[in-house]
Amino acid sequence: MKTVGYLEGTHALYLTRLVAKGIDTLPLSNGADNHGKYVGLLSKSDNISLVVGYLHKVIPTAEHGIAPKDMLYSCRLHKIPVMLIVPSELQADAKKILKEAADDVMLVDPKDVDVWEETMKILGYT
């Protein structure tokens, strides 16, 4: 069974659609919002097939003393795809902010890419 980890703010109908299709969902935290399991502590045993969220959820504030690459390190280590929702006109800016983590995430604009179809592709259903 596939599991999609999601950061706070991920659209409820998207999550409902996943569950209705038999795909588990797991709330994930950025370490500041206490939304679920901290994304930086994901392990193989969590069996996460994809992490989904918005850009702002993986950009720590300066006082946290970490970078996006640190927060998303376990995703890179365990080869978990990360899909972040970012309008296309802001994607170049997002890559600058993400710095080293930019190579490890997929930026999608729902106006340009069907997020559901992209999810199904990543999960191997299409």
Describe the structure.
The chain is an alpha/beta fold. Helices cover 28% and strands 20% of the residues. β5 (82-85), α4 (91-98) and β6 form a beta-alpha-beta unit.
How do the helices and strands line up, and which of them pair or pack?
Blueprint: E1 3-7, H1 12-20, E2 24-29, E3 37-38, E4 50-54, H2 68-71, H3 73-77, E5 82-85, H4 91-98, E6 106-108, H5 115-123
Parallel strand pairs: 1-2, 1-4, 2-3, 4-5, 5-6
CATH architecture: 3-Layer(aba) Sandwich
Question: What is the string of SSEs from the N terminus onward?
Answer: EHEEEHHEHEH
User: What distance separates the N and C termini?
Assistant: 15 Å
Average predicted local confidence, pLDDT: 96
**Beta-strand share of residues:** 15-25%
Radius of gyration: 14 Å
| Structure class | alpha/beta
Shape: globular
- Strand tally, please? 6
- CATH fold-level assignment: Rossmann fold
Widest sheet, order of strands: 3-2-1-4-5-6
CATH class: Alpha Beta
Largest sheet: 6 strands, parallel
Query: Uncertain segments of ≥5 residues (pLDDT<50)?
Result: none
How many domains, as an integer? 1
Which features does this protein show?
alpha/beta; 6-stranded parallel β-sheet; 20% strand; Rossmann fold; single chain
In short:
This protein is an alpha/beta fold.
